[in-house]
Design brief:
41% of the residues lie in helices and 11% in strands. It has 318 residues and is α+β, with helices and mostly antiparallel strands. Among the domains are: 173-201; 204-317, Fusion Protein Consisting Of Minor Coat Protein, Glycine Rich Linker, Tola, And A His Tag, Chain: A, Domain 2, CATH 3.30.1150. Strands 1, 2, 3, 4 and 5 form a 5-stranded mixed sheet that branches.
């Protein structure tokens, strides 16, 4: 009994000395756990949990797909329409047109533009009356009263009629309007360049032995007589000594004032002495008579194409 009372007194004194350990579990050698220690342990625990979350979890972000670049389609406007469709087309246009002209390259056809104006928004084309079906008719498409097509075909036709009955209007943004304006300006510039090039291009009248017009034929005959006379008088001495003969084909371009602007040998004689002699004869005979008014009304130069024959110390043309 005495020992029990002594132990009770010791516990009571410990509780008064150590309020944090009312049960007296902490020994005299073990340190006490205070509020600061609890806070430190809580912070360390929170840091450990955050590290686990940051290092253990991975986040995947879906980047937006890049927008596809707008593809432009180059359409050419032609002023005329042909019923016959060309086998091989060089450009896309709103109508069929057969190519023509004297150019060696496929030039883009152009049309006269009245000015650089912004393109108006294109309205959807009106749906034909046959394509627009009434609600009652659209509802009757699924009925087996019509010719006996497959049920799947009925559904497709009905869906197409519904989509065609309500066309969606395409809104044109400011960027699209500006782009169309630039395209019209580029077409107008190309048309102006081609018109200037056509105006500067010489209008040639080709006169050959097969010409039937009276005025050009008469001019060519007078030109031929003069060249043959000058050529025979100045026959190349080297060809005479070597006994060389031959023929060549040459084109002579004459300006309205009768002066020679260009000489071109299309088929050589095979002897440089004869080719050079033909060019020399033309230069000696120039200038020729001015072009007749009947020719200059339509053409600003004449090209005379003839075959020259060097034989027996004379020059003949045919």
């Amino acid at each position: 009994m005495a020992e029990t009372s002594i132990q009770s007194q010791i516990k009571a004194s410990n509780q008064l000395q150590n309020p944090a350990d009312p049960l007296g579990l902490a020994s005299a050698d073990s340190p006490l756990v205070g509020p600061r220690d609890r806070m430190l342990s809580t912070v360390l625990y929170a840091l450990a949990v955050h590290l686990v979350l940051l290092l253990g979890l991975q986040f995947d972000f879906d980047l937006p797909e890049p927008k596809q670049a707008l593809r432009s389609l180059d359409i050419t406007l032609v002023p005329q329409r042909d019923n016959k469709e060309p086998e091989e087309a060089d450009f896309l246009a709103q109508a069929n047109q057969q190519g023509g002209g004297e150019s060696d390259k496929a030039l883009k056809p152009t049309t006269v533009l009245q000015g650089q104006q912004p393109a108006e928004p294109q309205r959807p084309a009106p749906v034909p009356a046959q394509a627009v079906a009434k609600p009652s008719e659209a509802a009757q498409v699924d009925k087996p009263v019509l010719s006996t097509p497959r049920p799947a075909t009925h559904k497709v036709v009905a869906n197409q009629l519904k989509t065609e009955a309500k066309p969606k209007r395409k809104k044109l943004s400011a960027a699209m309007l500006m782009r169309q304006s630039r395209q019209f300006a580029r077409l107008q510039a190309q048309l102006a360049d081609q018109q200037q090039a056509s105006a500067k291009r010489p209008r040639r009248k080709i006169i050959s032995a097969s010409t039937k017009e009276y005025v050009p034929a008469a001019y060519m005959e007078a030109w031929r007589a003069k060249v043959e006379r000058i050529g025979t008088m100045n026959y190349p001495a080297a060809a005479r000594r070597a006994g060389i003969s031959g023929s060549l084909r040459m084109a002579v371009e004459i300006l309205p004032n009768g002066r020679v602007s260009k000489i071109e040998i299309s088929r050589s004689s095979g002897y440089p002495v004869l080719d050079k002699a033909a060019i020399r004869v033309v230069n000696l005979a120039a200038p020729f008579a001015p072009l007749p008014t009947e020719i200059t009304k339509e053409y600003n130069r004449v090209v005379i194409v003839r075959t020259w024959k060097f034989a027996e110390e004379s020059i003949e043309m045919r």
